[in-house]
Amino acid sequence: MDETTFMYVEIVLAVLAVAAFAFAVTVLTLIRRLNGLHSELAALKSRYDASEMKEPGKIAALPEGKGKEPVKRAELAPLGERKPAVVPAPSAAVAADGVEPEVVAAVMAAVTACGYMPTAIRPVRQRKRQNKRWLLAGRLAGMR
């Protein structure tokens, strides 16, 4: 073999040795961090267990307000007497072909009731083919 080939092999081996050393250092660093995290976890568990031993049955609760009246809840009407809530919907310009304005109003009211802004709704239209020649070429080639 030629001397330049041996020189390239030596360079490649040197680069591989440096990469292996860097990998080993990284692995050892990560192992040390993992061991440190395990020791922190053990310390936290022991502190948690010690705090539970001191106060075994204590459950965290919201403090009660002193001198305040309880919140009154609204009574519901019987099922047959309930009326649906009417939500006024803002009027919007409609440019739909073949759709009745009442249908559009009902859809817009439902969308507004769900919490969407009516201006965020965009019409969906069929996209036109960009290049009819490619479509024809695909059909001639037997593609779908």
Structure at a glance:
Keywords: Membrane, Transmembrane, Transmembrane helix. With 144 residues, the chain is mainly alpha-helical.
Question: Features of this protein?
Answer:
0% strand, mainly alpha, 144 residues, 3 helices
Question: Would you write up a description of this structure?
Answer:
The protein is mainly alpha-helical. Among the domains are: 1-53; 95-125, no CATH class. It has 3 helices and no strands. The chain has helices spanning 3-54, 101-113, 132-140. The two termini are 57 Å apart.
Overall outline: flat
Element-by-element helix/strand order: HHH
Largest sheet: none
Return the average pLDDT rounded to an integer: 77
Return the structural class: mainly alpha
Rg, alpha carbons? 36 Å
Q: Are there runs of 5+ residues with pLDDT below 50, and where? A: none
* Percent helix: 40-55%
Number of strand elements: 0
Distance between the termini: 57 Å
- Helix run count: 3
Percent of residues in beta strands: under 5%
Indicate the topology.
Layout: H1 3-54, H2 101-113, H3 132-140
